[in-house]
Design a protein that fits this description.
The relative contact order is 0.15. Helices cover 39% and strands 17% of the residues. It has a seven-stranded mixed beta sheet with strand order 2-8-7-6-5-3-4, with helices on both faces. The protein has a four-stranded antiparallel beta sheet with strand order 11-12-15-14. The radius of gyration is 22 Å and the shape is globular. The longest helix has 22 residues. The protein has twelve helices and 15 strands. With 394 residues, the chain is an alpha/beta fold. It folds into two domains: 255 residues, Type I PLP-dependent aspartate aminotransferase-like (Major domain) (Aspartate Aminotransferase, domain 2, 3-Layer(aba) Sandwich), CATH 3.40.640.10; 100 residues, Aspartate Aminotransferase, domain 1, CATH 3.90.1150.10.
């Protein structure tokens, strides 16, 4: 499909140059319509009729299948959640923590995940360690750094696959192997991944990666509707992970109505009534991406465009990119060297139709490109950044 024709499926791209996929992706028109038709169908045939309930179960299963196919996982390992943070909380609170256990956290994690880890530490007298992954962006070995910070009481390592602040892609398979093979630990060292930026942007095979928990969302790089995400739980750790939030969707129920146990797969972590049409919208968005090409094809195009953006930014005297080599994903973070406020520039660019965002750790600006970003949009962004400095000087 021609790129311009493909882009027309995303109404939000019509009147702006969008560089904030890491915050939220633009919803395709077909996804919006699919979601609306689903709500209409539910009302037409009765919100709680037996036929609608059967239809909804089928729709949820199809959504899990679509997600699993993109992640290289079996459908049984997929739990539907609201977002990344919920998925991380399911994994974090599902472990049988004991006083003195330790959690190893990278120094590049999102505040929502950090807060959950700190609350677990407070309630269960768990110790939290941090490892300096940010310093490995341009030199150093993140796998070796994590290995150096493992301790005999470490039970969980929490990190991101694609760092939301610097854009670094961590060697997840190697990290998982180091954690799983850490023989000094008194218990198996599990790995929980915040996949907010990696799902929908990196080609993934979670079965091969061997990761224990992989929490993701549908509203960023997959461009689904906000409010639906998921959690992958490796089959081998499913039984040892206990549900914290409990409801009828996650339990087996006798004909008498008595609960008799957990469902045998990832559904055990799902709770109760949700906005089910969001899953239909996400499935539609995934299908649109697959129309363009495989996850590998899309990733290669993302990398070509992010390298072009990185090169153009590096040519500006007033900009320093955090990465000293072309990025391996669609996030490009940079700082201004002329003293101009990052927030001031981002606000100015938004008024001109360029959507980026600022970050605070490190203090920088982040621009994101997707496979359907155009080189001309990048050129226009570079010109706008340059013009903003000239305007400020005058």
């Amino acid at each position: 499909m021609h790129l311009e024709l493909h882009r027309k499926q995303f109404p939000a791209l019509a009147n702006k140059a969008y560089f904030n996929f890491g915050g939220q992706g633009p919803l395709p028109q077909a996804s919006l319509e699919a979601m609306q038709k689903a709500y209409e169908y539910i009302q037409l045939y009765g919100p709680f009729s037996s036929s609608v309930n059967v239809w909804l179960r089928s729709q949820l299963h199809q959504t899990r299948v679509a997600i699993a196919s993109e992640l290289g996982a079996s459908v049984e390992t997929i739990t539907l959640t609201e977002n990344v943070t919920v998925g991380c909380n399911i994994a974090l609170w599902g472990i049988d923590w004991q006083a003195g256990d330790r959690i190893l956290l990278s120094d590049c994690e999102h505040p929502g995940v950090i807060a959950a880890v700190e609350e677990i530490a407070r309630r269960f007298k768990v110790e939290v360690d941090s490892c300096p992954i940010m310093a490995t962006l341009n030199q150093g070995d993140p796998t070796a750094v994590i290995a150096q910070h493992l301790q005999p009481r470490t039970r969980l390592v929490v990190l991101s696959h694609l760092l939301w602040n610097t854009g670094q892609v961590l060697p997840l398979k190697e990290i998982v192997e180091v954690c799983h093979n850490y023989t000094a630990s008194t218990q198996p060292v599990r790995v929980l991944v915040d996949a907010a930026q990696s799902v929908g942007s990196l080609p993934l095979n979670l079965t091969e990666l061997g990761v224990d928990f992989y929490a993701f969302t549908g509203h960023k790089w997959w461009c689904g509707a906000a409010g639906l995400g998921g959690l992958y739980v490796r089959a081998e750790v499913l039984e040892s992970t206990q549900p914290t939030f409990v409801g009828w969707r996650g339990i087996l129920i006798e004909e008498t109505g008595k609960p008799i146990g957990w469902k045998p797969d990832g559904r055990r972590f799902e709770v109760a009534t949700s906005a089910y049409p969001l899953g239909i919208a996400l499935r539609s968005a995934i299908a649109i991406h697959q129309q363009w090409g495989t996850s590998q094809v899309r990733y290669e195009q993302i990398c070509q465009l992010s390298e072009y953006l990185w090169q153009r930014l590096s040519q500006l005297d007033l900009v320093r990119c955090l990465a000293t080599s072309p990025p391996k994903a669609g996030l490009v973070s940079f700082v201004l060297t002329n003293g101009q406020s990052h927030e001031e520039l981002v606000r100015s660019l938004e008024k001109q139709g360029f959507l980026l965002r600022t970050l605070h750790k490190p203090d920088c600006i982040r621009a994101c490109v997707h496979y359907f970003t155009t080189p001309s949009e990048i050129d226009q962004l570079i010109e706008a950044i340059s013009d903003s400095w000239e305007t400020l000087k005058s």
